[in-house]
Amino acid sequence: MRNWIAIVLLLLVGTAGAENDTPATLIHIGPEDFTTQTLGMKTVEGHAYLIVQAEARNGQIANTLGYCRIRAWYDMRDRVTRKVLLLDHDDAILTTIRFSAFSLTNGKPRAGQMEVTDHSTGQTTVFQLDGSLNPLNPLTLI
Predict the structure, then answer these.
(1) E-only strand ranges, the chain
(2) Considering the chain, what percentage of its residues have pLDDT values greater than 70?
(3) What is the number of other CB atoms lying within 10 angstroms of the CB of residue 41?
């Protein structure tokens, strides 16, 4: 379970503060900075989803990231992550990330498209992902 958290963090965050700070002040945030839990199963449009959540261990981590929880929907049939939510302390949705257009690369499913919606601005951006640069979909490592 902890493996997917590291990949989600690399996919969504990288190293916090990288665009604003000098290299000497970069803050590394990794899987050890989160607690994880399984929230249960939910069926949507005939697909069974395992819902998992990672929560920042403290306020400093949450403030650095700009969110305190990551909640992901893992499609049990297709074995891919379909949706990831970034949430604040009150469980308000800050960002929604949807993965689609899956294909197999070296026998592993990879998303061909990622749609990111910023709920504070209402702006949605769609990214076409190149299979050579596309990281593994986070929960395919479970």
Answers:
(1) 34-44, 47-56, 69-75, 80-87, 93-105, 108-118, 123-128
(2) 73
(3) 11
